[in-house]
Specification:
Rossmann fold, about 40% helix, 7 helices, 6-stranded parallel β-sheet, about 210 residues, alpha/beta
């Protein structure tokens, strides 16, 4: 059982975060979750889930919606302004962090080390401790500033994994596309899964 930090920011694509939490919790991993205020709004806009004000109530809502099979201790939620949380320190052991989806604003502040909230501070901790940090941006088109910030994060030790699903596994529904991206994230964390059909595997025939 490993401990991972997962952060959700205000970019489109919160379905990726929901699926990642669902899979990681089903594999008995411990999750330390942070959701930005803008991320909460996107969760409501895209998934119809309106999170309550109290942190513990939010945690219970998220467990019911995204990780109903998880134990009470598996998912811990921190407010984005809680800079005294354990994950703000490099002394707290984790096996990595995923920012999914990662907004361009969050990516820019990670790139410059400007830790204005717990998401950015936790990401800074991953970089300084040389732990896995995966950023999953979902934006198009990308400006010169966006690309420059991505390169800065990459050079600092982060992995940039844009939400770009493949199609060689012959997706049939949106969930197949979500699973492809989430599966690739899990691959980079070294977590086994069977979310999509890998390249070289037999492809099922299409039905006429």
């Amino acid at each position: 059982m490993s401990t991972y930090v997962v952060a959700v920011t205000g970019a489109s694509g919160v379905a990726y975060a929901a699926r990642l939490l669902n899979v990681m919790s089903s594999l008995d991993h411990q999750i330390r979750l942070i959701i930005s205020r803008a991320g909460e709004e996107v969760i409501f806009q895209e998934l119809g889930l309106r999170l309550e004000d109290d942190v513990d109530h939010k945690r219970r809502q998220l467990m019911a919606a995204w990780a109903s099979h998880a134990s009470e201790s598996q998912l811990e939620l921190f407010a984005p302004d809680n800079l005294t949380a354990p994950i703000a320190s490099g002394s707290f052991p984790t096996q990595g962090m995923v920012v999914i989806p990662c907004s361009m604003g969050t990516l820019a502040r990670i790139a410059t080390g400007s830790s204005t909230n717990l998401i950015e501070r936790a990401a800074d901790v991953m970089l300084k401790e040389r732990r896995p940090l995966i950023l999953v941006p979902r934006e198009t088109p990308l400006s010169d500033i966006h690309l420059s910030n991505m390169l800065s994060c990459l050079r600092a030790g982060a992995e940039i994994m844009p939400a770009m699903p493949g199609f060689y596994h012959h997706p049939e529904v949106i969930q197949d596309l979500v699973d492809f991206v989430v599966g690739r994230v899990l691959d980079r964390l070294g977590i086994g899964h069977d979310l999509f059909q890998r390249w070289g595997a037999p492809v099922p025939a299409y039905e006429e």
